[in-house]
Write the structure tokens for this entry.
Amino acid sequence: MNVRRRSSAAALAAIAVIGAAAAPAVAADPSPSASPSTTAPSGLYGTTDPQYDGVWRQSLALLAQDTAGVVPSSTAVKWLTDQQCANGAFAPFRADPAAACDAKTPVDTNNTAAAVQALWAVGGHGDVIEKALGWLKSVQNKDGGWGYSPGTPSDANSTSVVIGALTATETNPEDVAKGGRSPYDALLTFALPCAKDKGAGAFAFQPDKDGKLLANADATAAGVLGALGKGLVTEAGEKSEAASCTDAGKPTRERAAANAAAYLTDTLAKDGHLVSALGGSADQPDYGNTADAVVALAAQGGTDKAAEPLAWLKKNAATWAAQSGPAAYAQLIFAAHATGTDPRDFGGTDLVAKLNATGPAPQGVAAKDTASAHAYETSDEKKDDDSPFGVWWFVGVCLVFGIGIGFLLSNRNKKQQP
């Protein structure tokens, strides 16, 4: 779905790639920024500048903790709720939550939808969620979808992350229509036919400047979950045969998801992972999008579909996550959850302890998970750095900020309805 990238040279290079392809390109893992340029209130996960990705990484951290049976710190939850504007939207980061949001406050659909999923998961914030959903509905485009920022054209990633927020809160996306078009209607306009020279079943981010749809692995992983009505956290779907792409005059969303899964499977077959490239550099492993692809493949066709990229992540992703911080650990926890893998022994790494150590100590472990949960970190040890690079949502933020300004699930029933 798209969101966190910063103003480093690597991010600018990623924006250049986006501009050339008119679709989000996930940057290789850059070094995190040296220090925050903005003083962040206590309660935030990670130590780098939260200006563009604070709400995103906080939401993923809280959602991953809940998924692993950890009760998050109340301070961390309050940090997230404090970022909401009076109209219900979430800004990536508000240095002074006491000050009212104004026309210059950079609110967006991705951070808002992620916050909805996280707050629904931890429970007890129905009023915040209701306002956020109301704002999302108010900025829905006429085609039924969403762009990153209000008023921008719909894209597959943003539409998918909002679908995830709707379904996580037990809202049927088909009932959230604009001009007779639902979010699913909008999402399917980004689905490509099966011919290899036309996209091989992938999803595009959005049309390029010539109106052409280009296959994009980032948007495809997002599109699979969106088409299935899944959020950031999901469990494995029913086991199915090897995914294949089948053209249809007007594919159902389930057919589009299967076609997209086939595209991901073919793309992953060479190396066991997805790749990304910055302008002028060689392709590099894309850990974040590979984790997203694992979730998508498992959701569409069961854990066996995701076995190869999951194995690659277990072997190779620990260093990337340590460098990239909370959102990266959360992505790996989501991949572990979707495949029934223990996140406390992910290739020898306790992802839950590592995530917990990047922010305020959790309150504890949920009673239902106490028997299986390992001890989590409560020490005041040095927090892992958190580069905002690594998850499919943030490329959209690059596009918006790099081009526009000068401009990117669990089915749990929660106690409180929005």
